Amino acid sequence: MSFNSVLTLRQKLRQFKAAIYSSLLLLSAAAQTLAVPLAPEESTKQLPLAEQRYHYDLAKQAMQRGDWATLDTHLGVLGDYPLVAYLEYGRLKHDIDKLELTPIVAFLDTHRGSFLETRLREQLLYTLAINKRWEDFLTFYDEAKSTRELDCYWLYARLFEHDSSAMSDIAELWQQGRSHPKACDPLFNRWRRAGGLTQDVAWNRFDNAMRAGKRRLARYVMRYMDAENRKYAELYYQVHGYPYTMRNTERFSEHSLKMQQIIAYGIQRYARHNSRDALKQWEKYEAQQLFPELLATQTKHRIARRLISNGYSAAAEALISNSPSLQQDPVVEAFIRDALRARNWEKVYHWIAQLSKDAQESDRWRYWRARAMEQLSLENDSFGAPKQIYHALAQARSFHGFLAADRVNTRYSLEQVPVELSPSTLLRVEQLPGLRRAKELWLRDNAGEAQAEWVFTIRDLSSEDLVAAGELARRWGWYNKGIHAMIAGNLWDHLSIRFPLAYEEEVQEVSAQTKVDPEFIFAVARQESAFAEQARSSAGAMGLMQLMPGTAQATAAKNGIKHQTQDLYDPQHNINLGGHYLNQLLSMYNGNRFLAAAAYNAGPHRVARWLRSAEPDLDYDIWIETIPFKETRGYVQNVLSFSVIYGYRLGQPRHLVNESEAKSFL
Known about the structure:
CATH class of the domain at 505-664: Mainly Alpha
Number of strands: 0
Number of helices: 39
């Protein structure tokens, strides 16, 4: 189903309401005035879906007015309309303060495992807590369906019911390095009055807050400290603001856990400014004090990462050489990428061998093992000869699998598993109550509740039923949820669902206008939002192709496209602007897609800086692997891989990187 067909369906819903309103309103008014009961055969007859929607809307309006008689009139003709449960839920929610548990329990049992069951249970628990019905609260509390506020009420209920183990659990909760909801205040007040807040607990929360970057919270916690602990806290604060203070080792000579925590924090802060001197100062402290192993490992790990990123790999290598616990995959991978930048293939090969077994067997590091072996003229190792590794890896449908296929000039592994489902399976899954509610809510533009219903419904489905749900979502045009179903079940081979030709008409249209290949537009949209029309990032990027409002405005102005910010939630408009912005980036980088993709994600200014710092004649695979930002590195690799897959799906096979891109990016 294309965007236009989905839009038409939604328009028809609105048009139908207007068209039949006058005729059905008379019937509805008569039924309300005369209160004439429906005949048995009429009450069992199902109304057409459009009329059910009309009566549902009137029932909702009646519920909002508290007009229960009118609600019952419309409810009586709704039959099996998918959202009837929302009316039942709404009535129970309205009366929840009465705490009449029998109908609530019946609803919870009928809708067990659903989104509405979880929502009503939450509201019941809040009401029980407000009314101090602690015994009932403990009966209905479900840890798997809880919230932070309900966790606090649960602990309060345990205190009230004289559960002695609650005190230590409250201490564990309070000392987390983050703020707690206001609902937790009565719990913590009672806990403090009972003597639960010790100086050690206060210090632990202060330390956790500082390490979590919550300095205002840390300052708040200081009010619960005695004079001695406040002295340590003030010193902690000082090394945060002035990390160079760590050079004065005499000031931190005291041997205590609190002082060691301050030293470790200060050295980690100092490493951000001067990693080499931070290492020097740390070695002095470590010679004087016996730090807890975990604290020492965390500190040296942070110093090592800073040293590598600042170009002091030899110092970092010396630091971890005598500490096997420091040879964790993130640090080792940083060494490998540093060696790749320098094209030091001996180091690349050495450090790959230091990775964990699982990491060594990943597509990424198998590829780079083979590359290093080629450069070092190594004929064989435990993974085989380079060409053997490439041929085996080329069977993987992944970025490094495609790279490996190009190294040995073999075809990409793009075969997909066709979606073969019986009509009965599709019908059975389509009739699942939660899926019916999810679809209807989505068609009514209620994105939040539609999303919740979908997630709750598919989480316990079998693999076959997940494929059916994904295929149904694709057919409806709810592409994002089809992709979600495949991810939820680790079902990677159904390419028609994982990589749908969503909004194909719109993509082809902007491709024709800009000459940006359609598979590249598809790949960027798939990576950016997985085709979620209403997606909005924490940074403010909007819509299918996650355009920032400023970028969208500038692109629209440059290309003469009428634009308002809210239009970014319109798929056609978003794809149009996104395609034109990609065209601008491709022009900037002479048609190079991986540079354009990197700029789309991280900004052209960062790409310019990365290009300036790269060694001359660096191979494109090394440049991509050593992009400094992990997010951008993964982004570029995904977009290139997705372009290959979309080329296959469009019947237009493409290379992962073409010859022009490989030769011209530097």
